[in-house]
Amino acid sequence: MKKFLPVAVVLLTLMSFTVIEGIGEYKISGTIDSSFNGKYMYLKESAHIGNMTTIDSALITKGKFTFKGISETPKECFLVIEGKEQEGSVILYTEEGNITVNVNKDTLFNSIVTGTFNNDVMHKFNKLSNEIGKLEKTFIDKNMGEFNKAEVESDTATINRVIEEHQNMIKENNRKYIAFIEENTNALVTIKAFVRLFSDQDKKSSDIKPLFDKLSAQVKETNLGKKMAEHLTKMAEIETAQAKVAINKIAPDFSAPTPKGKILSLKEVMGKVTIIDFWASWCGPCRKENPKVVAMYNELHDKGLNIVSVSLDQDKTKWKEAIKADELTWYQVSNLKGWGEPIAKEYGINGIPATFILDASGKIVAKNLRGEELKAKVKELLAQ
């Protein structure tokens, strides 16, 4: 036993040294079009979005470049070509192993990075994203002309059909992203797939949170992972608020300043039919919709239609200018807190324009109707 202990200690020491020495050592072997010979390729990292720091550089020679370094934990980095900084970058993960980069000189995003776990999974993710991107483009090319024409003609049936078809396509595409997430819970790039899931308007935090919980701690600790956790928390808060303003619920009363500084409450302005309209001076779709709402209000106000608009503006001058320019003669209120508007939070608003249609009792009978659909609903309620 006495003879064995010193030998064991030496073996353990050697084993420890061997493991530690190789931890995080990476080699990046890149190829690029020879027209870039003589330029530098920069390896950069980003602690914050839009703030990249150069950690290494390599001269491009005979269409090749090489980096060597140590990254104790996998880290997202970027390859940027000298003089081409505005044209984007090649994303890769610095991690232990031999990383191969084949730079696409025309579209840097389509460069191929392989050789280590996170880079191989990223390559799969990029292929999936490209595949889905082509499906999106095909759909838009096929339907956008018809959709734009329908908007001009206020053809809500066509608008709704195209939107529904698009959402159905998004749901099908999201099933592919969900499968990818479940197969790659330890890969850093997987967190990026979550961003795509939010394009499905029907997705709830309760749908996404169980997927997020499956991710490894390392993925959750990335900057995007932390932002995703925060977003899911906010999402849950919005959904809780939205449940309180569902169809057939009584609209919560609220009070806020008018442009002249007077405090106005919802209960003061209730009509036979009342529309609560969330908008802002900077919201293009809101401003585009305003002329139709003005025409409807002018026609139906004397019959019992009232409108109260809640603005998500922060600049009082711009708010007042937009009211005047768009000839909005109905009730206007705002706390001028942007997306922090307390009324918007209470009503679970996560996008504008947003509308709630109330009957004479203050019950919410419809939401987010536009154009002729909105006018038809208002007329139906006024006739009751």
TrEMBL record:
Report which superkingdom the organism of origin falls in. Answer: Bacteria
GO molecular function annotations of the record: antioxidant activity; oxidoreductase activity
Q: Which InterPro entries match?
A: AhpC/TSA, DUF4369, Thioredoxin-like_sf, Thioredoxin_CS, Thioredoxin_domain, Thioredoxin_ResA/DsbE_sf
| Pfam families reported in the protein's UniProt record | AhpC-TSA, DUF4369
Q: What is the predominant subcellular site recorded for this chain?
A: other
Q: Which Gene3D superfamilies match?
A: Glutaredoxin (3.40.30.10)
An example GO CC term for this entry is: cell envelope
**UniProt KW keywords:** Cytochrome c-type biogenesis, Disulfide bond, Redox-active center
Residues covered by the Thioredoxin domain: 245-384
Subcellular location field = Cell envelope
Biological process (GO) annotations held by this record are: cytochrome complex assembly
Q: What is this protein called?
A: AhpC/TSA family protein
